[in-house]
Amino acid sequence: MTTVAVLYGGASAEREVSLNSGKPCAAALYERGYEVRLIDVGRDVGALVQELTPAPDVVFNALHGRFGEDGKVQGMLDLMGIRYTHSGVLASALAMDKAMAKQVFAAAGIPICEGMVVGRETMLSGVDPMPRPYVVKPVAEGSSVGVHIVLEGSNEPAFDAADWRFGEQVMVERFVPGRELTVTVMGERALAVTEIRTKQGFYDYRNKYTAGGSEHILPAPIDEQVYQRCLDLSVKAHQALGCRGVSRADFRYDDTAGGSGELVILEVNTQPGMTELSLVPEQAQHVGIGFGELVEWMVEEAACDG
Questions:
Q1: Percent of the chain having pLDDT more than 70?
Q2: Radius of gyration over alpha carbons of the chain, in Å?
Q3: Contact, 113 vs 176, CB < 8 A?
């Protein structure tokens, strides 16, 4: 019997998301005949190595955010010679670092929106680093943690030092109005395009993981050519970063009245959520792939670079 250790939890800002991702994945794998061990990962690497001894056949990595999604745990698993789901060290690290990922996308001919990385002190100066509206975000976090939109005419401060716990670097990007689109890539296949509409505000952490916070429209009601371009660009981004297994690419599409019509990639998530509200299982179901089949495919496609 194949043994699978499901890593979940972690010490990042996305711990709760990871807990909610790992449990259904573990349950689905158990139902499909795997021997499953759930491991709640902390910051003690020695304890994690002990938990992984004797080594399982495969690690299902359901961690999100720093340590679990940024190449660090992947490197440890490579050293231990254990196959694991999702992307390897380099692709994971590149995708997590939004500034580096944008350079890769630009080099591959994938459209991005203008942006820059500035110091925390620059944001605290009170001088806008670029014309409004723009988006402020951490360089290396996921699930929209720490993301803030600075609107034209807003009296709110562009940067709140008291709420910023993401280091000395701050990413600033031009805000692109219009639709929020997302695409799952499974291997070399883009599954579908979903439009995400929020009930209030933008697609932040609260709207992502609160029931009723957002609406997923699948398939996205957009022009057929734009739909196909989203699929093509998602696979291209997956390949440019060197991803494997499942990833999810997020886009902005400006089809507003008098808008630019541009389609730009925001980021690639190498370990997208697998919760009840998550987009990847929903898109897989849309193309006829059930949740159990999806997680089993991820386990069977697991690899190790060690």
A1: 94
A2: 19
A3: yes
Is residue 205 very low, low, confident or very high in pLDDT (cuts 50, 70, 90)? very low
Minimum mean pLDDT range among 97-106, 131-140, 204-213, 297-306: 204-213
Cα 230 to chain centroid distance, Å, stands at 16
Q: How far apart are CA 44 and CA 26, in angstroms?
A: 22
pLDDT tens digits for range 102-112: 999 999 999 99
Give the Cα separation of 253 and 73 in Å (integer): 34
Q: Could you tell me the strand order of the sheet in which 58-61 lies?
A: 35-41, 3-9, 58-61, 83-84
Contact between residue 250 and residue 267 where contact means Cβ atoms under 8 Å apart: yes
- Please give the domain boundaries of the chain with CATH numbers for all domains: 3-86+296-300 (3.40.50.20), 95-111+177-288 (3.30.470.20), 115-174 (3.30.1490)
Distance in angstroms (rounded) separating the CA atoms of residues 86 and 83: 10
Q: Which residues are designated catalytic? A: 14, 143, 209, 248, 250, 267, 269, 273
- Comparing C-alpha atoms, which of 9, 38, 13, 41 is closest to residue 25? 38
* Per-residue pLDDT at 121 exceeds 50: yes
Q: Over the range 175-214, which residues count as b (16 or more CB within 10 Å of their CB) and which as e?
A: bbebbbbbbbbbeeebbbbbbbeeeeeebbbebbbeeebb
**CA–CA separation, 298 vs 246, rounded Å?**
7
